[in-house]
C-alpha cells in the first residue's frame, strides 16, 4: 500500500502517520528525516541540501526528489510506504509518478487530513513547551496546573517562535501556494480521499482506517 499524506501544518499528520505505519507495517518516510539523515551522513545530496538550508533557501526539487528516490529504493519499501512531506509540489508529484511507473507501481491513495485554518491557528498558537524538560502543553486543550509553569519541573513554559500567529499564517500561505495544487492533481487521478481531521485523535484514525480498508486487502 503506497500512501501520500496531505494536509496543512498542524493538521496532525505526524500523529496519524505513526498510527498508520504501525497498523499496516509500512515505513513512515518523512522529508525532514530524510534531510537530516543525508546531512548528518554527509552524503553528496546532503552536502548540497545543507548549502541551501544554511542560506535560508528552499532545497531545489531535483535534490529532494533524488533523496526520496534513494529512500524508496530500499527493501523495506517493497510492500508499500507512507510519504509525509513529499511530494510538496506538483513537480515532485510527477517525478514520483514516473519513478513508480518504472517499477510497475503507483500511488494507491493520497490521504488529505482536512482541518479548517481557524482551528489550526488555535491548535498551534496555543502550544507551549518547557525549555528545561521538554514537556508540552496547550493553553486550552492541555493547560498546566499552574498557569505559565511546567507541571514536571515547575519552570516557565514558553511559546516557540514557530508557533506565533504571524509564523503560522506564513506557513499556511506557503501551503496554499505550493501544496494545495496537489489536491487537484491527485483528485484528477482519482486517488484523493479526504478525512475530517477536526475530531479526537482516535476518531480521526478510525476515519482513516475506513478509507484504507478497501485498499488494504
TrEMBL record:
Q: In which pathway does it act?
A: Purine metabolism; AMP biosynthesis via salvage pathway; AMP from ADP: step 1/1
Quick one: where is this thing mainly located? cytoplasm
Origin superkingdom: Bacteria
- Where does the record place the region LID? 126-163
Q: Briefly state the protein's biological role.
A: Catalyzes the reversible transfer of the terminal phosphate group between ATP and AMP. Plays an important role in cellular energy homeostasis and in adenine nucleotide metabolism.
PANTHER family, alphabetically? NUCLEOTIDE KINASE (PTHR23359)
Enzyme Commission code(s) on record: 2.7.4.3
How would you summarize the oligomeric state and partners of this protein?
Answer: Monomer.
Q: What class of enzyme is it?
A: transferase
Q: Where does Zn(2+) bind?
A: 130, 133, 150, 153
Q: Report what the protein is called.
A: Adenylate kinase
The record's similarity note reads: Belongs to the adenylate kinase family.
Give the span(s) annotated as NMP: 30-59
Locate the residues binding AMP: 31, 36, 57-59, 85-88, 92, 160, 171
Q: Which parts of the sequence bind ATP? A: 10-15, 127, 136-137, 199
Q: Regarding domains, what does the record say?
A: Consists of three domains, a large central CORE domain and two small peripheral domains, NMPbind and LID, which undergo movements during catalysis. The LID domain closes over the site of phosphoryl transfer upon ATP binding. Assembling and dissambling the active center during each catalytic cycle provides an effective means to prevent ATP hydrolysis. Some bacteria have evolved a zinc-coordinating structure that stabilizes the LID domain.
Which compartments is it annotated to reside in?
Cytoplasm
Q: Which organism is it from?
A: Clostridium aromativorans
Adenylate kinase active site lid domain span: 127-162
GO MF term set: AMP kinase activity
Q: Which Pfam families match?
A: ADK, ADK_lid
The record's annotation in InterPro entries points to: Adenyl_kin_sub (IPR006259), Adenylat/UMP-CMP_kin (IPR000850), Adenylat_kinase_CS (IPR033690), Adenylate_kinase_lid-dom (IPR007862), P-loop_NTPase (IPR027417)
Alphabetically ordered keywords of this record: ATP-binding, Cytoplasm, Kinase, Metal-binding, Nucleotide biosynthesis, Nucleotide-binding, Transferase, Zinc
Q: Which reaction does it catalyse?
A: AMP + ATP = 2 ADP
Amino acid at each position: 500500500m503506497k500512501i501520500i499524506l496531505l494536509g496543512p501544518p498542524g493538521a496532525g499528520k505526524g500523529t496519524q502517520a505513526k498510527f498508520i505505519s504501525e497498523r499496516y507495517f509500512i515505513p513512515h518516510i518523512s522529508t525532514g528525516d530524510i534531510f537530516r539523515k543525508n546531512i548528518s551522513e554527509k552524503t553528496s545530496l546532503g552536502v548540497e541540501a545543507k548549502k541551501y538550508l544554511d542560506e535560508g533557501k528552499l532545497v531545489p526539487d531535483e535534490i529532494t526528489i533524488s533523496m526520496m528516490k534513494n529512500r524508496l529504493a530500499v527493501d523495506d519499501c517493497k510492500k508499500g510506504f507512507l510519504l509525509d512531506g513529499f511530494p510538496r509540489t506538483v513537480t515532485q508529484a510527477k517525478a514520483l509518478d514516473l519513478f513508480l511507473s518504472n517499477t510497475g507501481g503507483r500511488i494507491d491513495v493520497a490521504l488529505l487530513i482536512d482541518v479548517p485554518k481557524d482551528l489550526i491557528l488555535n491548535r498551534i498558537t496555543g502550544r507551549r513547551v518547557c525549555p528545561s524538560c521538554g514537556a508540552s502543553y496547550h493553553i486550552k486543550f492541555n493547560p498546566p496546573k499552574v498557569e505559565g509553569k511546567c507541571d514536571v519541573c515547575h519552570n516557565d513554559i514558553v511559546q516557540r517562535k514557530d508557533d506565533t500567529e504571524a509564523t503560522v499564517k506564513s506557513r499556511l500561505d506557503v501551503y496554499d501556494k505550493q501544496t494545495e495544487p496537489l489536491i487537484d492533481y491527485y483528485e484528477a487521478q482519482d486517488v484523493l480521499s479526504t478525512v475530517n481531521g477536526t475530531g479526537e485523535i482516535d476518531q480521526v484514525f478510525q476515519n482513516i482506517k475506513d478509507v484504507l480498508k478497501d485498499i488494504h486487502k
